[in-house]
Specification:
With about 350 residues, the protein is α+β, with helices and mostly antiparallel strands. It contains eight helices and twelve strands. The strands form three sheets. A five-stranded antiparallel sheet has the order 2-1-5-4-3. Strand 1 and strand 2 (about 30) form a beta hairpin. Residues about 1-10 and about 350-354 have low confidence and may be disordered.
């Protein structure tokens, strides 16, 4: 008896449970007070309403048929909208008798499983995301590798300048492969490493990156300027900040406009007590306005002639968001592009996991 009372108390008083009792016509005669805390609905306002009004139309006939039979019972998962618009998920168990099969009304138990369901959906989405990533990555890794192998075969049978030409093309293919592997590595580190918050010497970090980038293929002849206006120390994640800046600057080099006599890239950084704003401006080929809302999508490339892998800007946006910042882009095709990154300055906050 005590065990039964404990079970009933759990069913009726658990804040994640809603209990309904209907008559033989499925009109609600009792509903637990928890409907108010979950849906913001006064229990008395539901009395007399048909319980199947809350079941989706495609399932309604099946439920009624099953529950109209002697000893009929039913269990399922349903989703309902809360008063604030959120989608809630419930395990539902319905029976048409309690301890006496001559009682034709229904007893309906709804158990809130929203947290578990959202976790499951998030995991399914992550698995789909990973499947897509692995498929696309293996495809893009093989392309420059196959290209290099084909060129090796041609170089083996060539002589003189023709052989040198093939070796140069092999080098280009291997550089593309190396660049892609580095982007995959950045993607992995950004996803797995905890976010650190430590003081950053922007002068040293940026100048070191700029020195490296000036040696990249295509950087010859580009004027690269750096202006820092620092009113205080910056506390953030140095590895992720480096990832953001390197990816955007390397894109500026990759998409510089060879037809222009004066090519430039300018890096401006301003640090204040609450934030750091980094602006990267170039006069490269620019981006067609039709594609601006897509450039941060994973593996997005405007056309097949695009040099990049489609990972760089996705990594940039994901990294900025992990640092609780925002990124904006302005571009005019044929004129150039401006990326503006705003990051919070975590002066007083300790390091946290991502």
């Amino acid at each position: 008896m005590v065990k039964t009372e404990s079970l009933l108390k759990e069913l009726f008083e658990n804040p994640k449970n809603i209990v309904l009792v209907t008559d033989e016509n499925y009109s609600i005669r009792y509903i637990s007070d928890t409907v108010e805390s979950i849906f913001g609905i006064q229990p008395f306002s539901l009395l007399g309403k048909n319980a199947f009004d809350f079941v989706s139309s495609e399932k309604r006939a099946d439920w009624i048929k099953c529950l109209s039979e002697a000893n009929g019972n039913k269990s399922d998962e349903i989703s309902l909208k809360a008063a604030d618009g959120r989608k809630l998920y419930f395990d539902v168990s319905v029976t048409n008798h309690v301890a006496n099969e001559s009682i034709k009304g229904l007893v309906i138990f709804l158990h809130d499983i929203t947290d578990q369901r959202l976790t499951q959906l998030e995991l399914e989405n992550a698995n789909h995301h990973l499947d897509h990533f692995i498929f696309k990555t293996t495809h893009d890794l093989r392309a420059p590798l196959h290209s290099a192998l084909g060129l090796v075969n041609l170089a083996e049978n060539a002589e003189g300048k023709e052989r040198d030409k093939y070796i140069g093309l092999i080098k280009t293919s291997l550089q593309k492969l190396d660049s892609f592997i580095e982007e995959v590595n950045s993607f992995y580190k950004n996803d797995k490493l905890a976010v650190s918050r430590e003081v950053i010497n922007l002068e040293t970090l940026f100048r070191k990156e700029l020195d490296y980038l000036r040696n990249l293929p295509g950087a010859e002849g580009i004027q690269i300027d750096f202006i820092l206006n620092s009113k205080t120390d910056l506390y953030s994640d140095p590895i992720r900040l480096k990832t953001i800046v390197t990816n955007i600057l390397s894109n500026s080099i990759k998409y510089s406009d060879q037809r222009k006599h004066h090519r430039f890239i300018r890096l401006d950084a301003e640090v204040e007590a609450d934030q750091c704003v980094v602006k990267i401006t170039d006069n490269g080929v620019g981006i067609d306005g039709r594609y601006l809302d897509k450039i941060f999508d994973m593996f997005y490339r405007a056309n097949n002639e695009t040099q990049g892998t489609g990972l760089g800007l996705y990594i940039v946006k994901d990294t900025v968001e992990r640092l609780q910042g925002k990124i904006e882009v302005q571009s005019v095709l044929g004129k150039g592009t401006v990326f503006t990154i705003t990051l919070p300055n975590f002066v007083t906050e300790p390091s946290v996991a991502h």
